[in-house]
Design goal:
With 230 residues, the chain is α/β, with parallel strands linked by helices. Helix content is 41%, strand content 22%. The radius of gyration is 18 Å and the shape is globular. The protein has a 4-stranded mixed β-sheet. The chain has a 4-stranded mixed β-sheet with strand order 4-3-5-6, sandwiched between helices.
């Protein structure tokens, strides 16, 4: 599996995640994920993770999968929706912002999991209703491999990760690039920020996966952004 410690370490010190503060290689990411795997419950459980585009959160996500848990990605900065989803699906553990920092919190009375469940992914049309799609480990791995092969993603590729990681598109970018040993630039702001283009250039990204609506909006703003960035 692309998220296993062994698979990640295969790529050694090759850049995995790039941020404004530094670069984390695959071996470093594997080590960080393994530390999180040791922090989660021994018994297989549902783990809710607020999917911020940060090294720590991605390490927590990979660590949970590597430890055999099922993960329910949560939207960033939407505490009320997160509480609704947690009440409905009853995770055993959550990793999300609380009191200005991310915390690992355990719950009582967790849900009983289907043995094949690996990822409980909310659909884009289910805001507030908590309709989840259940994905198995094999389905997650097959999807990553299929995208990697179709787009011919290789180690020299570097995607700008600007999509939300609690939806399928953003996660597919993460999964497929990790499977290929490619790099990901983690963008914290909005693509309409005047600093986006210079930062994108500095990151040397080779791909910018976005929704068509975002692409159209970005294209309309491009002349303004270029002008402001000069």
């Amino acid at each position: 599996m692309f998220y296993s410690e062994e698979a990640l370490k295969t790529f050694g010190d090759w850049p995995a995640l790039i941020t404004d503060t530094g670069v984390t290689g695959y071996a470093g990411l594997a080590t960080a994920a393994a530390r999180f795997a040791d922090r989660f419950p021994v018994r297989r459980s549902l783990v809710a993770i607020e999917m911020a585009p940060t090294l720590t959160t991605i390490a927590a996500y990979l660590g949970a999968l590597e430890a055999g848990h099922a993960v329910m990605p949560l939207p960033v900065g939407q505490a009320e929706q997160a509480r609704t989803l947690e009440a409905q699906f009853r995770p055993a553990v959550r990793w999300r912002a609380a009191g200005g920092q991310h915390r690992l919190i355990c719950y009582g009375n967790p849900a009983v999991l289907h043995p094949d469940l690996s990822l409980l992914l909310m659909t884009s049309g289910s805001t507030g209703q908590g309709r989840g799609v259940r994905l198995s480990r094999d389905a997650v791995a097959a999807n990553a491999a299929s995208i990697m092969e179709f787009l011919e993603i290789g180690e020299r590729d570097r995607a700008a990760l600007v999509l939300p990681l609690h939806y399928s598109y953003g996660l597919s970018v993460l999964h497929s690039h990790l499977a290929a040993g490619a790099s990901l630039w983690l963008h914290q702001g909005t693509i309409l920020d005047p600093s986006f283009l210079p930062r994108l250039a500095d990151a040397r990204a080779t791909a910018l996966p976005v929704y068509p609506t975002i692409s159209a909006c970005w294209t309309r703003q491009l002349p303004i952004m270029v002008c402001r960035s000069r």
